Amino acid sequence: MNTREWIEKLVGFNTISSESNLELIDYIAAYLKEEGIEPTLIYNDEKTKANLFATVGPNVPGGIVLSGHTDVVPIEGQKWSSDPFTVREAEGKLFGRGTADMKSFIAIVLASLPKMKDANLKLPIHFAFSYDEEVGCLGVQSMVKHMADHVAPPRLVVVGEPTSMQVAAAHKGQHVSKTKIVGREAHSSRPDDGVNAVVVAAQLIQFITEMAEEARILGARDEAFDPPYTSFNIGPISGGSAFNIISNTCEFDWEFRPVPNDDPSAILDKYNRYLHDVVEVKIKEKFPECSVENEVWAYLPPLKADPGSDGEALALKLANKNETTVVAFGTEGGHFQSIDFPVVVCGPGDIAQAHKPDEFISLEQVEAGEKFIERVIEVMC
Length: 381
Ligand SMILES: [Zn+2]
Known about the structure:
The protein is α/β, with parallel strands linked by helices.
């Protein structure tokens, strides 16, 4: 199959993160086996999803890892002009869920496999295709563990997220938490008989808002980013049942996106100290069954730039660019960097088209992606 056929094939699998990706993974695995490549599948605990790792060429140091996620974001509530899982071509663009983010990159890699095999690679090209990227980079973590133990250190990891083939050397991190408050129910006319969990949540949200303001004015800065400081957000909140009941539970999600030189653990420590030592202590004193907990449920390490490094120079050569950039979105790159693999983000398509109805990739970007992979093959020979 050529690139175009692979894009159609991959988009045709509904791999929204809430669904299994096994049909897609099994299809790719069967193809690789036919081509004489033995893939390793790394499953989640429920065996409903898997990462796929494979190596073309000898497993020696100095290779290139081509990394992509197989899941896509939901289509719920979005107005599409045609079926999101059937590729439609119009005006030099391919429309479909995942065309930009990021099945086209994987399609280009897979369509290039015969060329890789013919090239008699001296250095390896590794494929690292993950699940559950869109819900907090959950899948890639077990694959990174596997790679740390089994893969000779590569010269570069290319995370093929859509950058319009720019070389992005850095991005912010992301920590997503859920705070849960257990208060005590009572009739609203008797405030001393209860603890209002919604009020406690408001107090904690106020504290996060103050931390955000402090980060904006006094915190770590990196002018490469917009905004150049660590940002915070409060997400969904739910609690309470009626205006005349003192609310006994409340929970809310919140996140912060640290610039690469910030210290996320210091931020979490500060919040946890306030949460336990100031807020929880007070309500427990009143009613011991009350509690407040915060759990970080998704964590994305930042990607730190390594200016002047061999990996960066190689990436610029492959992309035919003179300088690196940064991206505003998070990727799996930080996880690869945590095992000391050099990483850049560089892939076809525009992130502006991702996650939206009528997502598309231009044919010109597909071609630019193919050229990039051709240069990868040349360099590994
Ligand atoms: Zn993506």
